[in-house]
Amino acid sequence: MPKKRLDVNWKREVHTEDFKPALRRYTRYLEENGLRESTISSYVFRVGKFLEFAQTDEPDADDFAAFQETLYDKRLSRSSINNYCLPSSGIMRCVGNP
């Protein structure tokens, strides 16, 4: 009886990318910088939304600019935009894309 080969698809599709490793790294980065747990959970949630938008776990300045523009287009308040932009710029420093 011939052996069956396991059919494995190693490709990562853009819309199904797993951002958990990047979010764990970012959580450690925030903990090392002494942020409170409530701040960390808020930042990680917002960064998760940014990574979903950028469709990558290593966003660059162009991704950030497009995300910021989208927030403005949604007519969010200035404080809401700032609440998304501060942590989103932080993930770029964390991955080395200031």
Structural description of this entry:
The chain is an all-alpha fold. Helices cover 63% and strands 0% of the residues. It has 4 helices and no strands. The chain has helices at residues 20-32, 37-54, 61-73, 78-95. The longest helix is centred in the middle third of the chain and has 18 residues, at 37-54. The chain is extended, with a radius of gyration of 17 Å. The N and C termini lie far apart (57 Å). The model has no long low-confidence stretch (mean pLDDT 85).
Strand content: under 5%
Radius of gyration (CA) equals 17 Å
State the helix count.
Answer: 4
- What form results from the Cα inertia axes? extended
Distance between the termini: 57 Å
Mean pLDDT over the residues? 85
Record keyword descriptors for this entry.
98 residues, 63% helix, mainly alpha
Short account of what is shown:
By secondary structure, the protein is mainly α. It is built from four helices and no strands.
